[in-house]
Specification:
The chain is of the alpha/beta class and 596 residues long. The protein has helices spanning 11-23, 26-59, 66-115, 118-123, 126-168, 170-177, 179-217, 219-224, 228-280, 286-327, 389-395, 419-424, 440-445, 453-462, 466-471, 489-503, 519-533, 568-574, 577-582, 587-595; strands at 349-357, 364-373, 378-383, 404-409, 412-413, 426-430, 507-511, 537-541, 553-558, 561-566. The protein is built from 20 helices and ten strands. The structure holds adenosine-5'-diphosphate (ADP) and magnesium ion.
């Protein structure tokens, strides 16, 4: 389905690939770790102070003076002030470092998404991608600084308290610490399950996003077919699935946390029993027992924090995994190593023995097609729907690569030139126009970044768009709405033509540019297109034959490839497929005739 990549990554592999992102901010990272060690100092020192006070009170009451207490208190207060400052740094800069990393990763992901070809988007749901580059990467922020910090703090606390406790009693310390590996091992094991559940949840949320997006974008169709109930059922299905998955995840979480609590109990029990017995037999002092109790609390708090962090860790790792899934999607259409700039003189296009099938379903669409479109020629392509006209046009700007053969522009194989130089020379006007949310002027300027207002207005005039634009409330600065919903089909089309005027390419592809329009708009737009095609090599695809009767040459594309070729008059005289199309004889009949 939408999840085309099923590769699973090990945590180690993911971490290894994540390190370069982290390493870029190593200065903040080391400062963060330094601050982390300062904050742990307070936690470690407190039990020592308490045990010293207790021991002094019990075994040397005479030295227990106000001065001693004052000294210890002052020492502790200074530590706490340092702790506050260090904590502030960790909390602000640590998180900000995470944000830097997240931003870097997001821009890398977006860069990769821009490079992925049409066939990726034909098979991936946008909602899934959205989730990956927003919420998933947000979890990486948390992960980025907490991961090193938490492990570091835990490491210091465990090692230092172990050493200090050994001074009091080695056997008791070993006895208590013997519980720690079990605790860590158990939680890692359970955490594994938790991570799997987290990932499943993520995928399902993406799926649900995609579903909502699909329904909302098709809102008009839903209403027109009164399909609200069907949509609701589809949604309820996904929603229900998410519920099940979330429940499963919470069970995994409960298991994990319960286990940790049990271990807490175990450690306290060992301290009470063993510590009590050691005290009875005079192996440790009362102060030592206080110290043990306090260190065990710290230890337990640390391990709890680690486990809490395990949730963040699992989310962060999942986010990183989903990020690398995007990054690892192969880019199937890219510049050749030695790609040159395309040099366009006249804009001659040649299909040299081109065969093509769509990469994922292997339906042969074009077979050994040979066709030359001369410089400046206006060539029309007609034929039944699904015959491969759009496909043929999409091979020219390399939206897809030919399966075999070559497409050449002015003699240069388009696979051997840079994509940028190739696409810069091609203008496309299609049936459905995509306008970006923004103003009319911004949308026209898409054809030429940095275009001046004069250039934009000039292009709009050429496209016959100026008159309606100036009538809009804010003229060229009118907001077009998301996808241009505030404009009519004809208006959108004229804006898209103005874009191409501004771009001023040598080659023009017109794919059913007027098909979705009413008669009046069609006439207006045809005039604009006629002007646009002057001096450019033009490939016009149309199903309304009246729109192409003045083309220099007309090609009829059938299932077997090119079936007829000539200008309007010649083709009518032939009384073949074109003649039948022109006279409105059903397409199926044409198909039948061809196959006989
Ligand atoms: P036309 O423009 O002549 O109506 P198309 O070029 O759009 O025809 O489609 C030609 C054939 O290719 C059709 O059978 C269609 O189902 C198939 N096709 C079109 N786009 C894709 C795609 N993205 N993936 C797979 N098959 C496709
Ligand atoms: Mg088409």
């Amino acid at each position: 389905m939408s999840e085309t990549i099923t590769k699973t990554y090990s945590t180690k592999e993911l971490l290894k690939r994540f390190v370069p992102y982290l390493w870029k901010y190593k200065r903040i990272l080391f400062m963060d770790l330094f601050c982390a060690s300062l904050t742990t100092l307070c936690d470690i020192v407190l039990p020592r102070i308490m045990s010293q006070l207790t021991n002094t009170a019990m075994y040397d009451p005479l030295s227990l003076t106000v001065e001693l207490v004052g000294k210890m208190a002052l020492f502790y207060i200074i530590l706490r002030i340092v702790d506050a400052a260090a904590y502030f740094f960790m909390c602000s800069q640590g998180h900000i470092m995470g944000v830097y990393i997240e931003t870097d990763m997001r821009s890398d992901a977006f860069d990769q998404l821009e490079k992925l070809s049409d066939s990726y988007y034909a098979n991936t749901k946008i909602g899934q991608i959205m989730g990956r580059i927003t919420s998933d990467l947000f979890d990486v922020t948390e992960f980025a600084h907490h991961c090193p910090e938490e492990f570091f703090i835990a490491f210091i606390k465990i090692v230092v308290s172990f050493v200090i406790l050994c001074y009091a009693s080695v056997p008791l310390t070993i006895l208590i610490f013997a519980c720690v590996p079990f605790m860590i091992f158990g939680s890692i094991k359970l955490n594994h399950k938790f991570r799997a559940a987290t990932k499943e949840q993520r995928v399902q949320i993406g799926e649900l996003n995609a579903q909502v997006e699909d329904s909302l974008l098709g809102e008009k169709v839903v209403k027109a077919f009164t399909a609200e109930d069907t949509e609701l059922k589809k949604f309820a299905n996904g929603n229900e699935q998410l519920k099940t998955i979330k429940k499963k995840r919470y069970y995994a979480m409960a298991n994990l946390n319960m286990c940790i609590r049990l271990f807490d109990g175990l450690m306290y029990s060992v301290t009470i029993i063993a510590g009590g017995l050691f005290l009875v037999y005079g192996k440790i002092t009362a102060g030592d027992l206080v110290m043990y109790m306090l260190y065990v609390s710290t230890l337990i708090a640390t391990i709890r924090r680690l486990v809490e962090f395990a949730e963040q860790f699992s989310q962060g790792i999942t986010g990183i995994e989903r990020f690398f899934e995007i990054m690892d999607t192969p880019i199937d259409i890219k510049d050749a190593e030695d790609a040159k700039e395309l040099e366009v003189s006249g804009g001659e296009i040649e299909f040299d023995n081109v065969s093509f099938e769509y990469p994922d379903d292997h339906n042969r669409v074009l077979y050994e097609l040979c066709l030359k479109i001369k410089s400046g020629e206006n060539l029309a392509l007609v034929g039944e729907s699904g015959g491969g006209k759009t496909t043929m046009a999409s091979l020219i700007p390399r939206f897809y690569d030919v399966t075999s053969g070559a497409v050449k522009i002015d003699g240069q194989d388009i696979k051997k030139v840079t994509m940028k130089s190739l696409r810069e020379n091609i203008g496309i006007v299609q049936q459905d126009v995509y306008l970006f949310s923004g103003t009319v002027a911004e949308n026209i300027a898409y054809g030429k970044p940095g275009a001046t207002r004069e250039e934009i207005i000039h292009a709009a005039k050429l496209a016959g768009a100026d008159s309606f634009i100036t009538e809009l409330k804010d003229g060229y600065d009118s907001y077009v709405g998301e996808r241009g919903v505030k404009l009519s089909g004809g208006q959108k089309q004229r804006i898209s033509i103005a874009r191409v005027f501004l771009k001023n390419p040598k080659i023009l592809l017109l794919d059913e540019a007027t098909s979705a329009l009413d008669n009046e708009s069609e006439i207006l737009i045809e005039n604009s297109l006629k002007k646009l095609s002057v001096g450019r090599t033009t490939l016009t695809i149309a199903h309304r034959l009246t729109t192409i009767q003045h083309a220099d040459r007309i090609i009829v594309l059938g299932k077997t490839g090119i079936v007829e070729e000539g200008n309007h008059e010649q083709l009518l005289e032939k009384k073949g497929v074109y003649y039948r199309l022109w006279n409105g004889i059903a397409l199926e009949e044409v198909g039948d005739r061809k196959s006989t």
